[in-house]
Amino acid sequence: MSAILSTQNLVKKYGYKIVSNNISLTINKGDIYGFVGKNGAGKTTFMRQVLGLAFPDSGEITLFGGEPLNTARKKIGSLIEFPSIYKNCTAYENMKRMAILTGSSDKCVRKILDFVGLGNTGNKKAGQFSLGMRQRLGIAMALLGNPELLILDEPINGLDPTGIMEIRDLIIRLNTEKKITFMISSHLLEELSKIATRYGFIHDGKLIEEISAVELSQKCSDRVLIVPDNPQKAAEILSKIMPPQQIHIYNKSVYLDSMIDRTGQINKYLVENGVTVNQISIHAINLEEYFLRKVGA
Ligand SMILES: Nc1ncnc2c1ncn2[C@@H]1O[C@H](COP(=O)(O)OP(=O)(O)OP(=O)(O)O)[C@@H](O)[C@H]1O
To answer: Ranges for the ABC transporter domain (predicted)?
Structure first.
């Protein structure tokens, strides 16, 4: 697997605030990399550094196996926050403006507009577009110059369910048909989980975990949920009959990674050892819960 983007101990401070705290992250060719973090976690700042719009205090950015950053950045398209669209221009006119900067042909402009589903918008001004159409136009503009990597900052933020579905489908088609690698930031974790192949979780400027979608779904699969009167005591007692690393306390509950077929025995064992069990069940966690647990929320 070849890395398209990697950073080594990237640090960025604004005043005393460390916004990128030693971030070492890798995005491989073909990934749809979900960059997940709460508001203010440092997602945009990280992306801006990759794009050369903000400058790290220390650390390194490696693009496309070590090409000089200025030339390598020409292979990256981006949509950071809101697309810069002229509201009084049509989709085609907006694209033509951008095409001058990237040296793209008219044929290429029309092809991309068709691909993103805006080929038939005719004389309609972008100001009359839905938010979803505007986001698709933003992506279309980012596609000029044939990027190998697209960096999208919160591309589905504020979209209605149809808009979200359209952007999701577009990303999947660009990834599978055009072989474009994606880095997508979002705090809408459930939505991201429908497309991401790998994730990076960021919290308070720190990359707390990188994990593949397959590994994540294994980690989020069924486990035992126990609601005891005393979670600490329950965990301590259970650690005598199972590996302690498979026992997690979260939100006054105890979760066990194994023992799914032994809930009756667990219940009996805890009660015999003086723990009252208010609830014991099988529970699959979702991405949101997983992330919140990771960041200790
Ligand atoms: N130019 C700047 N000057 C000072 N502080 C900044 C600047 N840009 C960002 N910050 C601060 O850095 C922190 C991280 O911001 P950033 O926008 O990178 O987070 P984010 O994860 O993208 O969040 P959001 O989803 O809200 O945009 C925030 O506390 C923000 O206020």
So the answer is: 5-229
